[in-house]
Amino acid sequence: MTDTMTRLTRLAATAVCALAASAAGAQTAVKFGVLNDRSGVYADITGEGSVVATRLAVEDFKAAEKGLKVEVVSADHQNKPDIGSNIARTWFDQDGVDAILDVPTSSVGLAVSGIAKEKNRVFLNSGSGTSDLTGRSCSPNTISWTYDTWALGNGTGAAMTKRGGNTWFFVTADYAFGTALERDATEAIKKAGGTVAGSVRHPFPGQDFSSFMLQAQASKAKVVGFANAGGDTINSIKQASEFGLVQGGQSLAGLLIFVTDIKSLGLQTAQGLVLTEPFYWDRDEASRAFARRFAERMGGKMPSAVHAGVYSSAIHYMKAVAELKDTKDGAAVVAKMKAMPTDDPIFGKGAVRQDGRKLHDMYLFEVKKPAESKGEWDLYKTLATIPAAEAWRPMAEGGCPLVPKT
Amino acid sequence: MADAAVATSGAAIGPPVIEGTGAAGFHRAIFAGLVVLLLVAPFLLYPVFLMKVLCFALFAAAFNLLLGYGGLLSFGHAAYFGMASYISAYSAKVLGFPPELAILAGTAMGAALGLLFGALAIRRQGIYFAMITLALSQMVYFFSLQAKFTGGEDGIQAVPRGTLFGILNLAIDINLYYVVAAIFLIGLYAMYRIIHSPFGQVMKAIRDNEPRAISLGYRVNQYKLALFVMSTTLAGLAGATKAIVFQLASLTDVHWSMSGEPVLMTLVGGLGTVFGPLIGAAVIVSMQNYLATLGAWVLVVQGIIFVTCVLVFREGLLGFVAKTIRRPL
């Protein structure tokens, strides 16, 4: 009698366990960690907006209906790699974060990519622009979603040259990043049949660009390209405007500049600047719909390309997890993401390449004149579409060890 | 003129605490308590966070050795910390050094750079000394920005942690933690011995009244240089260890704002106390990590705490305790 009872109890216990397991299995827990700059120079293009974009992605994906229980956490890495890597480790080790999103600043992005690989989780990069993440530092756990410096330099260089801006003069920040940007753009210009009349290196960070502007004017090049970033780009565009380079018939091209920079520079100063971005809120109906919802929660601010990239990468990640029903093996999730074609309202149809590069079209924009602008955020007009096939560095040139040598 | 210089360099230093006879035993007890605390800490807190606290505590302690006991305010300690972390990361990653040699190489870099910069900087006093150290450290920053081996703004990433002496696998956090804790204790104990040695006494005399020390026949510049090099060596040790812990070395480590961190930590913890920098580092690093979710508010909170500390605890948290219990800490 007691034996039967024990057996029955065991049976019941097993059944309960099995039921509990299946109940748990029906809901896959996903935890996103949005790690970016919330207080410094990149707070506008990343920051809280990326958290909002992630939440919008979770809503749009209808995660709960698809068996995902999604949680979003965020933190400020203050653009310091040691703080960023400490947060990433804590998130992976202690807080059960499955995927880290965004992460501007190349040094922090590279550090997080290394940790994601070590802990076998996922890093969906949107904020850092280093093309090394899909080159020699590529990882089976990392996807670079939105942009990289190669695509920006190459896109602006090639597209401008094809549109007739075939002689260039570069104002370049004198350190590895600036010279790399200039080199990539130069290659694209030459390939498109243009020439580089000259270039000048300015100290980093720079305040006074007047002598460089005079040299740029004297070069008589049709296009003056700024191979610098952040405050340097803003300062050089301001001073170019003071020296009247655009009025003198030259075009300005920013090789790394975002919509939020243009917004803070103002149209009066930035008018006529040509730049490459993967996203502009006012481009089509879908992007406007996304921007409206984003702006409602961000006090009227429009989303940057990085925000759009965070949104799109979160959607694709959830798609892969909804099929796998498991997040534990980060490399497997990324492999699944590479196997599935991407499709979302913002970037449309695309794919993720073997080296972790997400492929989508890029656009060449020109900053409007104040008279052409109809609203506070009406900043760009589209000059050209750079198709995905031409926009990104060919996989073979990146030197990513994940790519089989042919 | 000389008096004015002494007045400025002495202004930042609190009143000298008179050492009681029981101080040595008291300090031994604190060290013992610290060892126990460090042994159990990883079971209560996240080891990587603790390692960061320890690295910064050692860095702040090295800075405190120079300012608190030598009266020399260096605004360029990031140079030694950062260069040591570059050398340590480079030798571990590219040259394939085991971690112990990588850390030693970094520390040696801190010492060499300290000797070079110190020899130039100690010729001036007070604010001029601080400005020279700042200028030299900015040179190091721009060197690091341009040099090939530092990887520019990407830094040196994915540094292998390796195995200590070929046996202990440092990829496991807890192993590395105990190694870092040992390095920290050795560094702190070395500083404690330096402070309480005859050399340390002379340094304190120079700090309090340099012309008098000269009149007593001490070659103050040699003493100052020696203390400067000791401080930069220990700062180098901290930087080199940090590179192994975080597996990276970047421009952040040589940036001038990094020179401000030990100043902040030392002032919050207690200038001129042996254990104060540890408290200061724990407070500042905890804020940076645990308040990271507050976003932009981290810096505001940090500022408020700093202002409160300066207003309420003029001698820093531990300096306040030391004054209350009337014992040097």
Polypeptide structure, described:
- Chain A is α/β, with parallel strands linked by helices and 406 residues long.
- Chain A has two domains: 192 residues, 3-Layer(aba) Sandwich (Rossmann fold); 153 residues, 3-Layer(aba) Sandwich (Rossmann fold), CATH 3.40.50.2300.
- Chain A contains 15 helices and 15 strands.
- In chain A, strand 3, helix 4 and strand 4 form a beta-alpha-beta unit.
- In chain A, helix 2 packs parallel to helix 12, helix 5 runs parallel beside helix 6 and helix 12 crosses helix 13.
- The longest helix of chain A has 25 residues.
- Chain A is globular.
- With 329 residues, chain B is mainly α.
- Chain B has a domain of 215 residues.
- In chain B, 73% of the residues lie in helices and 1% in strands.
- Chain B has a two-stranded antiparallel sheet.
- In chain B, a hairpin with a 3-residue loop joins strand 1 and strand 2.
- In chain B, helix 3 packs across helix 11 and helix 11 runs parallel beside helix 14.
- In chain B, 50% of the residues are buried.
- The N terminus of chain B is likely disordered.
- Classes of the chains: A alpha/beta (406), B mainly alpha (329).
- At the A-B interface, strand 2, helix 3 and helix 4 of A face helix 3 and helix 13 of B.
Q: Largest interface by residue count?
A: A-B, 36 and 32 residues
Estimate the global geometry of chain B from the Cα principal axes.
globular
| Biggest sheet, spatial arrangement of strands of chain B | 1-2
Percentage of residues in helical conformation of chain A: 40-55%
Round the Cα radius of gyration of chain B to an integer and report it: 19 Å
Number of domains of chain A: 2
Residue share in helix of chain B: over 70%
CATH fold topology of the largest domain in chain A:
Rossmann fold
SSE pattern of chain B:
HHHHHHEEHHHHHHHH
H/I helix tally of chain B: 14
Rounded mean pLDDT of chain B is 88
Query: Residue-averaged pLDDT of chain A, rounded?
Result: 89
Please identify which CATH superfamily of the largest domain in chain A we are dealing with. Response regulator
The neighbouring-strand order within the major sheet of chain A is 7-6-8-9-10-14-15
Low-confidence stretches of chain A: 16-24
Beta-strand portion of chain A reads 15-25%
Low-confidence stretches of chain B: 1-16
Largest sheet of chain A: 7 strands, mixed
